[in-house]
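Predict the assembly for these two chains.
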Amino acid sequence: MIRILSIAAAAALGAALPASAQEAAPANRSCELHVWPAEDFHTVYYGWGHGGTVDGGFKQRTGYARLWVDPLAMKRQAEILSAQPIPDLLGLPDYRMVVHPQRLSSQVIRTSPGRLVPDTPPCYAELVVDTVVLQHNVLHGKGLNVIYRFRQFGAAPAPERTFGTFVVAPVNLVLSDKELPEPTAFAAEMERAYVATIGEFATRLQAPPKKAKRKP
Amino acid sequence: MTKFTLLLATSALFAAPAALAQTADTPAREAAPVAAVPAPVDTPAAAAETPAPAGRPGLVPASPADGCELHVWPAERMAAQTTGWLSGFGVIGAIADQSANAKKNSDHQSLLATALDSPSQLDALASLDLRSLLSRTPGTTIVMHETPLERHTMNKVKTRRSDSTAQCYSELIVADVLYQKAALYGRSLRTLFMFRDFGNDQKIDREYKAWGGNGLKLFPPQEGEDAVAALDELVGVFKGNFDEYSRNARKALVAPTTAR
């Protein structure tokens, strides 16, 4: 089953790569870092007496803040990712970055044991933005929660290193269920938070692993 | 059942469920009228199609299709509830508890929405032998609906939720997903499922709605720490919850005329 999924994903991605991927660095490097954006961002709300419906604002449910989707739509995420020095941030300065404009399905992200792009150099890494969620809690405020998944490969089919985590960047926005926010300020704040999570993830990725607690 | 009712009541008081607050929705995301911020780089001229998820084998029966259909919908509502000892001190204690755990609750809610998004719920259910678990015929065709049903319509609408006119028709609806951490009971993931069997018309012949719940060992992860195993655990426990639910459902639905 996993093999079939992997083959299907690899075939789809391999076919799409030449036309869709965007190279964001000189092509003379032998290592590659492939980067994918997430789906358009989601929202969750935690309020007094109501909340919980995922994307309640986008579904125009009563009591859920109305939002623009554009600032972190998939296409916009790809543009933002392309503008960031992600290889340097991740400690992979010799890697050539290739940003894909289309997201991967959650099934592909979570079940592919091997490379998401076949026929890539042995020196290869992947950074997948799994999910972007704008979370709003009446008692705590708003934050952009981004889940990243990183894998680094060598000559072997299996990754040499995997790391996935979530990072949350506070968001300073006034939201209302009555009217949409001012689009320019909303977009600027959302994009600022998104970029901040990239840097925070990079820091977490390069942090030395915590030592396992030993029982005396 | 009392336990689950209490659980729901607690959640309704402090956290997510918004059944009465919701109105009919128009699932349309609003796009800004103009590009709010100039793009720093060019976008590719030809965007490739989003890679389609690999198929869900097993939806079409291995046996010859017999005209029976099982329609499945994922949940749209995710709640996370962390409570400590303060909750034992009345309303003020509960509010203080909620305030102290507000960030955790939001973080966990986002993680639920990630690990158990609609495709992941459906993938998880599709990986199970739904025909056997819900006592469907081997020739039943399973139809997965990617868009969740609106939660507050789930109990109100008593007719088929799809346009199918199959002569043998049933529905499995995931209603709620709830993560709970309680000082006394530890961490668990609970899922509310609803099964409805219509037969050949628009009238519910048999119905069973109940929670499945199991403990968690890895979830929730800490921010910045490797979270992959914890997120995967949610999917595994979600399946376990359905297994528990389906066992109870088979018992409850044995009597053909019993409707719960």
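The radius of gyration of chain B is 20 Å. Chain B has six helices and six strands.
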